[in-house]
Design a protein that fits this description.
This protein is an alpha/beta fold and about 300 residues long. The chain has ten helices and eleven strands. The N and C termini lie far apart (about 75 Å). Bound molecules: 2-phosphoglycolic acid (PGA). The site of 2-phosphoglycolic acid (PGA) has 11 residues, from helix 7.
Length: about 300
């Protein structure tokens, strides 16, 4: 059955008025144009939709059925129109964000602040390490990503929005705690608890020590910043983590940041998506939000 939306609109008007003339007036058409549309529709359907008894026009049984269906279609179309209008105004929609695990210390605050201003938006947040973030972005599995500076060989759009200082942490009773200026060479005598390969923090730390020509000893490897902090607190050695991860520990004094020459290693957080990706209206608004408001929503922990 080949029915056009225009035929349905004309049909609904005739069925509502039960008059070709009044339907024509409502639609600003001539009466023969209306009859022609109905005739074509009846041909397409293969049954008469109206019958004329005396002067009055009636819907046939097929006409009744057609009217029910065509009203349902109109309602659905209207609903789709409203949803799309909402999406344009960002009252609804889905937002998928993947962040490097370290960004998990501040990303929930950003998303919460955003969600409060856009209540109809459903948000999903995935935390994983830098390598997996890159894979998800390249496979187009996410709207936006938050990570350290992405490698240049990938075809990505990336915008920095906040600093990410990496610092050396120790238990408060560590011999280097409170030392005014620890020479970076001194770190060669220490053992570090480190993040897994594929972590941005790990990569940046390795680069730093390589440039300074320092061999750093590491013991345990761990896939989470939380686990590193716990081990350092327990006296397993030193750690290099993002200052963003230390909000609680610095406040309670359970960890200290060592004052080592050359530290912090200064990195930045980037908002990333694949080049050429068409961002949804929600993703566009979230992008703006992060670029403009991140440092107001999230305050970097302070080193005492
Ligand atoms: P992570 O850090 O992968 O060490 O969690 C994020 C990054 O620096 O890209």
């Amino acid at each position: 059955m080949h029915v056009t939306l225009r035929q349905m609109r004309v049909f609904e008007a005739v069925a509502r008025h039960l008059s070709y003339t009044r339907a024509a007036e409502e639609l600003f058409l001539t009466q023969p144009a209306v009859s022609m549309q109905i005739k074509q529709l009846e041909e397409n359907v293969g049954l008469p939709l109206f019958e004329q008894l005396g002067k009055r026009l009636y819907l046939t049984e097929a006409g009744d059925e057609m009217l029910r269906c065509s009203r349902a279609v109109s309602r659905q179309l209207k609903e789709a129109e409203e949803i799309i209008e909402d999406m344009k105004g960002v009252r609804r929609g889905r937002l998928q964000v993947v962040v490097a695990s370290t960004a998990g210390f501040f990303a929930p605050r950003l998303l919460t602040a955003f969600a409060k201003e856009h209540e109809g938006v459903t948000i999903s947040l995935d935390l994983t390490n830098r390598e997996n973030v890159l894979r998800q972005v390249m496979d187009n599995e996410t709207d936006l990503a938050i990570m350290g500076q992405p490698p240049e060989e990938y075809d990505l759009e990336s915008e920095p929005f906040m600093e990410n200082p990496l610092v050396v942490i120790a238990a408060p009773d560590h011999p280097l705690a409170g030392n005014k200026r620890v020479p970076v060479k001194r770190l060669q005598d220490e053992t570090f608890v480190v993040r897994e390969r594929g972590s941005g923090t790990r990569g940046a730390t390795e680069r730093f020590f390589r440039e300074k020509e320092i061999t750093w000893k590491y013991g345990m490897e761990m896939t989470s910043n939380e686990a590193i902090k716990q081990s350092v607190m327990a006296g397993m050695g030193l750690g290099v983590v993002s200052l963003h991860t230390l909000e609680m520990e610095l406040e309670t004094g359970r960890l200290v940041v060592l004052n080592v020459a050359g530290f912090p290693i200064m990195r930045s957080w980037y908002l990333v998506h694949r080049k050429g990706k068409r961002l949804s209206p929600v993703a566009q608004v979230f992008r703006e939000f992060v670029l403009q408001r991140a440092s107001e929503v999230w305050q970097m922990p302070q080193v005492a």
